[in-house]
Amino acid sequence: MSARVYFASVARSTRISPRSVSSTMNAVRSLHMGTTSARVSGLVRARATIISSRRWATSTTPNSSAVNPAEVEAMQCLEEGTQKLEEGDVQAAKDLYKRSVEIKRTASSLFNLGVTHYHLKEYDDAIVAWKEAIALQPSSADAHTNLASAYIVSPVARPDLALHHLRVAASLSPEDAEIAFNLAAVLEACGFLEEALDQYKRSKEFGVERAEMHIRNVGAKILGKKMKALEQETKPEDKTEPSS
After folding, report:
1. What share of the chain has pLDDT > 90, as a percent?
2. Residue 106 has pLDDT above 50, yes or no
3. Could you tell me if 38 and 58 are in contact, meaning their C-beta atoms sit under 8 angstroms apart?
4. pLDDT tens digits, residue range 39-52?
5. Which is higher by pLDDT, 62 or 85?
6. pTM above 0.85, yes or no
7. Where are the alpha helices (DSSP H) in 1-89?
8. C-alpha angle 140/130/147, rounded to 5°?
9. Which residues pair with 28 in a beta bridge?
């Protein structure tokens, strides 16, 4: 199950709503499993074919130890949860991740727990889990990306916070094509067309070929706005007859 959100364009709207944006999602960004790579079908579908990818969460961290029996159990729950997630049993995976978090709160266990909450449409819980994962590991671009997606599809959408976390993710992984595309889509939806155009161009440069279509669309929008502004400037003022 892919666990990293990859947005389709949400053009034609200057306001993000849970309904409009959820239909443009594919799946949340993948969990980290070290050098292991896995791809599982996403639960959230999009209008367009979306790239999904990569990394799953590892049960170990630089500071972890297998000496403590409690840590051993936490690691085991995390690994079993990931196996359940790969099998498509999201609820079982969530229960195992919750147990892992109860024993030892790590960025990996919280990240994966957030993924299961997201797929079960428990967006508020996903936000809580990913915020705590970021507190423990602020450099996780994937956690910032996923948190942004949860802010968009939650019942009370927060595109401002989504943009913040996508910008952080882009600063952490400046050559990540998916993040650049996600950021561009949300910027476009919020009406920041020039910045959206820049990010679409970056995503295309890093390998997202279909960004070309969005580059053309956003370029046309920018041109249309400029032409409309020019028409307003050159429009003759209405002259009224003086009253007698």
Report:
1. 63
2. yes
3. no
4. 222 222 222 222 23
5. 85
6. no
7. 18-22, 69-87
8. 80
9. 3
CB 203 within 8 A of CB 180: yes
Q: 3-class DSSP state for residue 215? A: helix
Q: Measured between alpha carbons, how far is 200 from 208 in angstroms, rounded to an integer?
A: 9
Percent of the chain clearing pLDDT 70 (strictly above): 69
pLDDT tens digits, 147-205:
999 999 999 999 999 999 999 999 999 999 999 999 999 999 999 999 999 999 999 99
Amino acid identity of residue 134, one-letter, is I
Which two tokens mark 243?
Answer: 């009253």
Give CA–CA dist 64/110, Å, rounded. 15
Q: What sign results for the dihedral spanned by CA atoms 188, 194, 199, 201?
A: positive
Q: If you write DSSP's letter for every residue of 66-101 in order, what string do you get?
A: SSSHHHHHHHHHHHHHHHHHHHT-HHHHHHHHHHHH
Asked if 120 and 88 count as a contact pair (C-beta separation under 8 A), the reply is no
Contacts 24+ apart (CB under 8 A), 226-233: none
Backbone angles phi, psi at 234, to 5 degrees: -95, -5
Secondary structure class of 165 (helix, strand, coil): helix
